[in-house]
Specification:
Elements: E1 8-13, H1 16-28, E2 33-38, E3 44-46, E4 49-51, H2 53-63, H3 80-87, H4 99-113, H5 118-129, E5 134-137, E6 144-151, E7 154-159, H6 160-166, E8 175-179, H7 190-196, E9 199-202, H8 211-215, H9 220-225, E10 228-232, E11 235-236, E12 239-240, H10 245-251, H11 258-265, E13 272-275, E14 288-291, H12 299-321
Parallel strand pairs: 1-2, 1-9, 2-5, 9-10, 10-13, 13-14
Antiparallel strand pairs: 3-4, 6-7, 6-8, 11-12
Bound molecules: L-phospholactate (PEQ).
Pfam families: CofD (PF01933)
InterPro entries: CofD, CofD-like_dom_sf, FbiA/CofD
Keywords: Magnesium, Transferase
Length: 323
């Protein structure tokens, strides 16, 4: 198998970083069949609507509709509905939904209310966006990431989005839990896609609340462990490439380093690990570590990173097969 051959690739993805990596992967391997298993732990109900930030970020980014500067939400967005809600005193005001984005959540909520599963709704939304990959939510069941914090209002669990977006992770998380994950079932097609995959890639998504949450759905981790898996480090030189993943890693007692994240995923799951040149000295027992520039500065640089991940995965798979 050559990376240029048609191959089946599964990617576990969160939001912005995952979506940008996927855009690079799609251009690095245009013939590949790419299945994306999307995190739904960040999902939240707002104004009576079901909002799936990570699924939408992947869909908008690959479908050409994303706000490129922000990395999420729609391009050419307006905020009339948000302003009108605020005029009624209806919140929360801290979650920035634009008018175009609202339409997606209205369609999704309407279909869910009619009895369609989230996986079917996502497929229907993708009919419009044609992302060039098959996007499946990790589960059709409700899983919500909650964060335990303690401040002047006392100790309490809040929705991940409230901690992340409203509080900007400024209050330390005492713990993070994917509520509902242990009883959730993988969405239809998730396990079959993993079982059929030539390789599985972990993009530089948040290892705790994105990839960690997907792996927490029973059955997914075990299925992934049977494949050749290569991850791209979301940590460069001791800091997240973007975002505040360090706040999540600290909450679970893991150091913010490329080595610690590889160890968190663990031997038995990860076969190869791409780190930045800044982390060239990183070694992880039992995992093949390679270094190269990992900043996704533009689409061409991102495609090079995706190609390097794929090449490493193919090399490791071949080595495994010849043993
Ligand atoms: C929460 C978010 O996760 P991602 O969508 O990047 O996986 C982040 O770490 O910025």
């Amino acid at each position: 198998m050559d990376t240029l051959d048609v191959m089946k690739i599964v990617v576990l993805a969160g939001g912005i970083g995952g979506a940008r990596f996927l855009r690079g992967l799609r251009s690095a391997a245009p013939e590949a069949e790419i299945t994306v298993i999307g995190n739904t732990g960040d999902d939240i109900s707002l104004f009576g609507l079901r909002v799936c930030p990570d699924l939408d970020t992947v869909m908008y980014t690959l479908g050409g509709g994303v706000n490129e500067d922000q990395g999420w939400g729609r391009a050419d967005e307006t905020f009339t509905v948000k302003e009108e809600l605020a005029a009624y005193g209806v919140g929360p005001s801290w979650f920035g939904l634009g008018d175009r984005d609202f339409a997606t959540h209205i369609v999704r909520t309407q279909m869910l209310a009619a009895g369609y599963k989230l996986s079917a709704v996502t497929e229907a939304l993708c009919d419009r966006w044609r992302p060039g990959v098959r996007l499946i939510p990790m589960t059709d069941d409700q899983v919500e990431t909650h964060v335990v914090v303690e401040d002047e209002q006392g100790r309490r669990a809040i929705h991940f989005q409230e901690w992340w977006v409203r509080l900007r992770a400024s209050v330390p998380a005492l713990s993070i839990a994917a509520v509902g994950a242990e009883d959730a079932k993988p969405a239809p097609g998730v396990l079959a896609a993993i079982e059929a995959a030539d390789v599985v890639l972990f993009p530089p998504s948040n290892p705790v609340v994105s990839i960690g949450t997907i792996l927490a759905v029973p059955g997914i981790r075990d299925a992934v462990a049977t494949r050749t898996v290569v991850g791209v480090s979301p940590i460069i030189g001791g800091a997240p490439v973007s975002g505040m993943a360090d706040a999540c890693l600290t909450a679970i007692g893991t150091e913010t380093s490329a080595r610690a994240v590889a160890e968190l995923y663990g031997l038995g799951l990860l076969d190869g690990w791409l780190v930045d040149e800044a982390d060239a000295a990183v070694r992880v027992e039992g995992i093949e570590v390679r270094s190269r520039p990992l900043l996704m500065t533009d689409e061409a640089a991102t495609a090079d990173i995706a190609r390097a991940a794929l090449d490493l995965a193919v090399e490791l798979k071949r080595a495994e097969e010849s043993r």
